[in-house]
Predict the 3D structure of the following.
Amino acid sequence: MKTVLQRLLRLFTGLFLYAVGIVLTINASLGLSPWDVFHQGLSNVLGITMGQASIGVGLILVIADSLLGERIGWGTLCNMLFIGLFMDLLMLNGIIPVSKGIVPGLLMASSGMFVIGIASYFYIGAGLGSGPRDGMMVALTKKTGRSVRFIRNAIELCVLVIGYFLGGFVGFGTLFMALAVGYFVQFAFKLFKFNVKSVQHRFIDDDIKLLAVLFSDKKKDINAE
């Protein structure tokens, strides 16, 4: 039980920090990251918050990931739901200020990407499954045989273009974040000496199988009595 609580604490710490990082990049006011351009475009068209748009897109991706054969973890579902909720909590209450200059904006965007790197260390390290967007990237990589870089760039280009035509904010910061976020995440991983390959994820089907075994054993014990 203690291990489970520790993993959940690590997961939710990561998800909250991820939302903080996203809001920092949004409030930098230099242009949104590709996915957030898409989320903002949807929020403009549908009259919903960016957090709600993120949740809706995440839900669709979770379903698509599952249909493509990717295993879903509790962390995947929490990622889908809580990052969006935390984003709205931060944005609707004005907890993180909005930048009004290029230099402060660059500092804020850079800080946001670094926080996203730290957040990734926490939530991935919890070992409860990847996020819906990463799951889609992995699923398409397996299905197409193309490189992870190609698939990730293709996905982000698609959501960027769609988001732009839906009214999402594209600017210098969009290019900056698209090119730099990987380096910030890598730096955070090196800082914490974190090896992604060492993480053993626990998926929902693992728990279902475990419950089935426990139920079967309990039923045998009852019958034996």
Notes: The chain has one domain: 2-200. Residues 2-200 form one domain.
